[in-house]
Amino acid sequence: MYQRILVPVENSDYDPVILNHVRKLARHCNASIVLIHVADGWAARNAKPLQLRESEEMKQDRAYIEGIADALEKEGFQVDALLAGGDPGDEIAAAAEREKCDLIAMGTHGHRGIADLIHGSVAHTVRHISMVPVLMVRGTHTPAGSRPKI
Q: What is the residue-level pLDDT of the chain in tens, covering all 150 positions?
């Protein structure tokens, strides 16, 4: 069914929801997992054009995504980890094509109405510009300090 699943992570309490779902799906399909985190701070958005060094935020993002990849590899999954910079929706859609993924599996926040206008919706952008199928799993907010295991 699926051979390569792209999973955007954002270093939030929504990540464990999608990762736990993808574990089951990837195991069932014997699929590899491609993790992506899109750093979208000023330095990350301008690193390439301005030839900037990796910011402290990006270093922390890299450590986070590599930690998840290591944990998944220890569970027997084949995993690649990508750190991108720029517009999250555009970067996720581009990575799916570039990495030859046949599914994008994302956690969503479930914003509605004015919250979507204020915060935007990466999932909305991805599902409209990507030709790769998108699976959206709604997460729930977890109080600080009680984040489920990734």
A: 899 999 999 988 889 999 999 999 999 999 999 999 998 765 555 555 555 566 677 888 999 999 999 999 999 999 999 999 888 999 999 999 999 999 999 988 755 555 554 445 788 889 889 999 999 998 766 555 555 556
Phi, psi (5° rounding) for residue 55?
Answer: -75, 170
CA distances from 95 to 101, 112, 139 (A): 8, 27, 23
Q: Which domains, and CATH codes, for the chain?
A: 4-138 (3.40.50.620)
List, in order, residues 6 or more apart from 119 with CB less than 8 Å away: 109, 111
The model's pTM:
0.83
